Amino acid sequence: MLDCCSIAPRWMSLASRSGSPPAPNSLGAYWGMERCICWRSFAMRTALPSHRILSAHVDCASHSVFTLGILFIGRIYRHRYKRYTCKLLVTTCQRKMTNAFEFYGICFSMIIFSIILLSPPHREPPSRPPIIHNTPAAVRTVLDPPTTSMNTLLRSRASPNTRLHRTFHLSNTFVNPDPAVHAAFLRQSRALLQTAKRDWNRFNNVALQAVELSLPNPVIPFHVFVRAATLRTVIVGLLDPRIDITSLASSDLDVVGQLITDLWLLSKNPEHIPEHLLEMLNHRLRRLVPDDEKYPNPLDFVIPTFETLWRLVAVTLAHVHRDAAACGAFRDFNENPSCEQFQASRLGGTSPSVENYISETLRFDPPVRHITRHVDKQSLLTANLPRFLAAWFPPRTELLVADIETAQRTPFWESDKSSADVYDAARFLREPTASHLLAFGCGPLKCAAINWAPRAAAVIVGATLNRVDGVGHYIVRGPRIGGREGWDRWEVRTVS
Ligand code: HEM
């Protein structure tokens, strides 16, 4: 942060030029004012970017307020006691100004600037109600606004995600708008995905082992089972193939899965989040992902990969495990996890492919239901001001919500004969254009795993249906299909 102390230590020299040091009472006023004036000329000379000027001026503005405070107190004292101190205070300042007009002009502008610039550089989230966009076209406009720079897009995403930074201490591109952080995170994500994509048979074997190790004896809550199987697969199949899958302790996987869910739900609550929860989460996670050079903060990668994937797997399983045709498609895919098999519809093109089932889950129950953006809007006043002046006024920030879940159930989808509010993977056979899903976002910030994650989820579902086949193990349904939570009474049981 710029500090005006380093820019404008001129009061000393001015004081010495006036022949005597300023009187102690006038010192504060003099000091703050001089620093402010010098800072102003410095900023104008160097044309600093507005955010740096802002942060510099927060410091400077506090001096201005200090100055005004002293002047104000001086005036009260003059009124009450008519002491020479306050006269000295005002007259010393006035002596330094060539005329009274400039003196009062500067005071006035300092009041205005102080009011404007004391607003914190990191703006609070807007208090006005969010603006919901819930049609496919509107969602696209929020996520991929025309003529918007990458820097602005990154800022508009990171700002509403501060709760994730606060809760999980994430430092990735979802919470940090720095373009360098974005580039590095994307590079590392793509490298991981490339390696995983190279060998789907290996990934399939990892998923089979993960399911095997997560199976119950004799019973396990359904969501605990899916979380454990998915986390094992993500860690060994994507994040670090060197890890021995049998070394991942079930207790660590359970605690990590549960704490990520608990903290995510707590992050929506503005109240204090107990710090020991994150400490415990990081401690357990480090045992699962020990490479602290590659993953200095493992949550930066575990959250975007695992947190969405396990719910896609769980919801798909919940919809398909009683459907013989669907189970057949997933078991075939488990035998042969190729791209062709992923896309192959069955029974002469009348029965959906594995890809269709995953797409339908992404449409019907997207793991990311809403994406929020903070967008700065110019007021009428600032729109008509020159840019350098407009930069002084804090913009009006709007909270835009891209409601993906509603958008994917709009009449666009109802052009198909089955209702958009029904889970029906066959709609993708009748309506190929319906595959333009928004579940992975769109525009320059869309998901890096858009082509990998659906197939990876299908592999884990296939591996599960291979083992939880009603012969050795079976799924017990609960009253409703859950999401992050809400899987009451769902279980995986061993056939006795
Ligand atoms: C079912 C699984 C997943 C879903 C539904 C999903 C969804 C999304 C969505 C909606 C976004 C856009 C966020 C925004 O616009 O603010 C996104 C971004 C991203 N996702 Fe995923 N994701 C999934 C899995 C993964 C996986 C497995 C990876 C693995 C590396 C990944 C890596 C990323 C990255 C790097 C970005 C940021 C892209 C950028 O900023 O340019 N995602 N994801």
From TrEMBL:
<dbReference type="GO" id="GO:0004497">
    <property type="term" value="F:monooxygenase activity"/>
</dbReference>
<feature type="transmembrane region" description="Helical">
    <location>
        <begin position="54"/>
        <end position="77"/>
    </location>
</feature>
<feature type="transmembrane region" description="Helical">
    <location>
        <begin position="98"/>
        <end position="118"/>
    </location>
</feature>
<keyword id="KW-1133">Transmembrane helix</keyword>
<keyword id="KW-0812">Transmembrane</keyword>
<dbReference type="GO" id="GO:0020037">
    <property type="term" value="F:heme binding"/>
</dbReference>
<dbReference type="GO" id="GO:0016705">
    <property type="term" value="F:oxidoreductase activity, acting on paired donors, with incorporation or reduction of molecular oxygen"/>
</dbReference>
<dbReference type="GO" id="GO:0005506">
    <property type="term" value="F:iron ion binding"/>
</dbReference>
<keyword id="KW-0472">Membrane</keyword>
<protein>
    <recommendedName>
        <fullName>Cytochrome P450</fullName>
    </recommendedName>
</protein>
<dbReference type="InterPro" id="IPR036396">
    <property type="entry name" value="Cyt_P450_sf"/>
</dbReference>
